[in-house]
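Exercise 7.
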Amino acid sequence: MSPNALIPSHRKPRRSASSRALRAGVTGGFLTLAVTGASVPANAMERPVSETQEMPTITTALATSATKSADAAQQVAFDYERQALQDNALAEAAKVAEKHKAEAVKKAKAEAAAKKKAAEARRAKEASQARASRSAVRTSLSAGTGNAATLVSFLKAQLGKAYVLGATGSSSYDCSGLTQAAFKQIGIDLPRVSQDQSTQGTQVGLGNLQVGDLLYWGSAGSAYHVAVYVGDGKFIGAQNPSTGIVERPLSYDMPTGAVRVL
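Solution. The predicted structure, written as C-alpha cells, is:
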C-alpha cells in the first residue's frame, strides 16, 4: 500500500459532468434563462443544446405609459365632443341673434314710419289751424265793416233760394248771376258769366283768402262755377238745381282758385 493512500487529498473536487451553468439576461422586456450542460444524456440527443423560455413582463413604467395613453385618447375624444357641442351652440345662438336683430330692425322702421306719419299729421293740423286762425282774424277785421260786411249780409239773405240756369234774381239765381248781384250791392260790376268773372281783380292763393274773395272752379278764363268766400273756411254760392243757394265749407268742394275784387 502506498504510504499516501490513506492521506486525504486536499485538491478541490472536480465538477460533475452533470453540473449546470445558469445564465440569465433580460432582453427586450423578456426574461431569458439559458441552461447548458457539459454532457447530454443519450436519451436527450434530439433536444436542443439550449432551451429558452420567454415570459412577458409588464413593468411599472409600461403600465403607467399605457394608462396615460388611454387617458390621453379619452381626453382627445372628450375635447372633440365638447368642441362640437360648443360649435353647435354658437351656430344656434348666431341664428337666434340674427332673427332678433331682423325683428328689431323691422320694429324700428315701423316705429320710425309711425312717428313720421304722426309728425306729418301734426304739421298738417297745425297748418290748418293756422290758416283757420288767420281767416278768422281777417273775418273779424273786415266782415263787420265796409263793403265786405254788406256783401256777406246780402249773400246770407239769399240762402235757400232756387238755382235756375240763367237767372239773376231776385227769387232765383245761377252761380254767376248770384255773384254779379252780390258785388253790385257794393258798387262793383262783374261780367255776367263765370269764365269772365274768374279773370277779374287779382289772383290770390287759397291759403290766403279774405272775406269777399271770388272763388272759381276750373281754370282762370274758363271757369265753370263761381261763389264768394264769407270767412271761417266757408263760401256761399248757387250750387245746382237740387241744393239751390247754400253755405258750404271749402272742404265740401275745394275751389281751383280765387280772385280779389274788393
